[in-house]
Amino acid sequence: MKKAFNGINSLFNASILTSVVILVIGIFLFIQPGTVIRMISIVLGILFLIPGITSLVDYFKEKNNASLIVGVITILISLILIIKTDLVASILPFILGIYFVINGISRVQYAIELKKEGFNSFSTSLVFSILIIICGVLFIIDPFEGAMTLTQIIGIFMIVYSILDISNTVVIKKGIKTVEKSMKDAVIEIEASEK
């Protein structure tokens, strides 16, 4: 049981760290949208370039046609990302939207589990989770075209998402600690009654 709770805590700590990174990127996107988009695009391009080159090397060693196809496609994607940096601005909202929706749904599940365990603040967690899902859906459908520069809107949503996610994680962690304590107390009572 202790290992399970430790695993959940590690997962939530990683989630907070991810949200902090998203928050920092969101702030920079809002302040310096062009520079950050170019940097993200180039970094993604380099990340795609490495497996592409590896696949091509594998093709020349093994003469595996699949490696050649994967290598060429991956290198083409990487070159597009490095050269056409504005492309990232157009696909980033969709990718982030999917991530936010998946994260929000998983948080709804945690909130429901906390309700089953009788945790009072589950409604706060549920509200945060639903707001995260709404952020994700808005990113996917992109209703803000032309209202502001798209990258600044991405920045604002990343900031909002990260604040919601960090707040939600803190609420859920408190709930899990309460559940863990009540389970420990129950085990102690059972052991005492058996004696």
Strand content: under 5%
Biggest sheet, open or closed, and with what strands and sense?
none
Radius of gyration: 22 Å
Q: Helix fraction?
A: over 70%
Shape: extended
Structural class: mainly alpha
Helix and strand run: HHHHHH
Number of strands: 0
Could you list the spans in which at least 5 consecutive residues all have pLDDT below 50? none
Mean pLDDT, all residues: 76
Quote the distance from N terminus to C terminus. 22 Å
Query: Number of helix segments?
Result: 6
Topology:
Blueprint: H1 2-31, H2 33-62, H3 65-83, H4 86-116, H5 122-141, H6 150-194
Helix pairs in contact: 1-2, 1-6, 2-3, 2-4, 4-5, 4-6, 5-6
Q: Which descriptors would you attach to this protein?
A:
6 helices; mainly alpha; extended; 0% strand; 195 residues
Describe what you observe in this structure.
The structure is a single chain. This protein has 195 residues and is mostly helical. It has helices at residues 2-31, 33-62, 65-83, 86-116, 122-141, 150-194. Helix 4 packs parallel to helix 6 (150-194) and helix 5 (122-141) runs antiparallel to helix 6 (150-194). The longest helix is centred in the last third of the chain and has 45 residues, at 150-194. The two termini are 22 Å apart.
The gist of it:
This protein has 195 residues and is mostly helical.
